[in-house]
């Protein structure tokens, strides 16, 4: 699903904000930064995502991020409807189908994608502290 309207990406009451520690693209998984109230893109499948960015921000700029509900997340590969997704290991903050013993699922795909850069609607439940996707 492709969209550029961030207001379609969240359900009211589930949005927080922080400061970008590094550049953040919109519709990407973010994690806590090194300092209080900072966020940065997820960089590994084991990262504990705290939300999905709603806007693009350079380092030092404000980032709004969603923590619950239906979110739009950019994918790094095709994902099937009903699949669990995790942060991609490329450091981009995109998501991919969850697999592997150390993967941390961030939610369930509601709308499938067919390739890289497409956006999926994902029912998220963050932070993903429940352990590996395949546990």
In whole angstroms, how far apart are the ends? 29 Å
Strand order of the main beta sheet, please?
Answer: 1-3-2-4-5
Strand content: 25-35%
How big is the Rg? Answer: 13 Å
Element pattern in H and E: EEEEEEEEEE
Continuous helix count:
0
Ranges with pLDDT <50 over ≥5 residues?
1-7
Strand count, sense and closure of the main sheet?
Answer: 5 strands, mixed, barrel
Quick one: how many beta strands? 10
The proportion of residues forming helix, as a percent range, comes to under 10%
Arithmetic mean of pLDDT: 84
Shape: globular
Describe the structure.
With 135 residues, the chain is mainly beta. Helices cover 0% and strands 34% of the residues. The protein is built from no helices and ten strands. The chain has a five-stranded mixed beta barrel. A hairpin with a 7-residue loop joins strand 7 and strand 8. The protein is globular, with a radius of gyration of 13 Å. The N and C termini lie far apart (29 Å). The N terminus is likely disordered.
Keywords:
mainly beta; 10 strands; five-stranded mixed barrel; five-stranded antiparallel β-sheet; 135 residues; disordered N terminus
Element layout with pairings:
Blueprint: E1 15-20, E2 29-32, E3 38-41, E4 51-53, E5 62-66, E6 68-74, E7 84-87, E8 95-97, E9 107-109, E10 119-125
Parallel strand pairs: 1-3
Antiparallel strand pairs: 1-5, 2-3, 2-4, 4-5, 6-10, 7-8, 7-9, 9-10
Quick structural overview:
The protein is mainly beta. The chain is 0% helix and 34% strand. It is globular, with a radius of gyration of 13 Å.
């Amino acid at each position: 699903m492709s969209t550029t309207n961030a207001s379609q990406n969240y359900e009211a009451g589930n949005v927080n904000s922080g400061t970008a520690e590094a550049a953040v693209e919109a519709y990407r998984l973010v994690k806590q930064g090194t300092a209080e109230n900072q966020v940065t893109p997820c960089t590994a499948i084991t990262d504990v995502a705290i939300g999905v960015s709603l806007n693009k921000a350079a380092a030092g700029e404000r980032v709004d991020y969603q923590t619950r509900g239906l979110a739009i997340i950019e994918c790094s590969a095709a994902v099937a409807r009903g699949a669990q997704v995790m942060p991609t290991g490329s450091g981009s903050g995109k998501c991919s189908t969850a697999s592997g013993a150390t993967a941390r699922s961030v939610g369930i795909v509601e709308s499938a994608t067919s390739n890289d850069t497409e956006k999926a609607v994902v029912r998220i439940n963050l932070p993903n502290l429940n352990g590996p996707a395949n546990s």
